[in-house]
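Figure 3 (text version): structure tokens given as input.
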């Protein structure tokens, strides 16, 4: 499955994901025409991991969909 493909993510895990309505591009940045996603995962053992992923998108609308999928996937992977 392509990274940006539509897929339903359903899980019962709790995650704190902040996407302020005032900035729909939160967690995204454009690096020379390609959109990237960056966020930090805080683990239960008090460690953290910075995640940076290339969305493969050249349009911000597509990058937002990939970002939403990445965040949902990380939320489901939390122990």
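Below: residues designed for each position.
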């Amino acid at each position: 499955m392509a990274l940006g493909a539509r897929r339903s993510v359903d899980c019962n895990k709790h995650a704190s994901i902040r996407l302020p309505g005032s900035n729909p591009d939160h967690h995204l940045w454009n690096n020379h025409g390609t959109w990237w996603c960056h966020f930090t995962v805080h683990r239960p053992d008090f460690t953290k991991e910075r995640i940076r992923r290339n969305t493969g998108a050249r349009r911000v609308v597509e990058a937002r969909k990939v970002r939403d999928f990445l965040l949902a996937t990380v939320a489901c992977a939390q122990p």
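Strands lie at 28-31, 34-42, 48-57.
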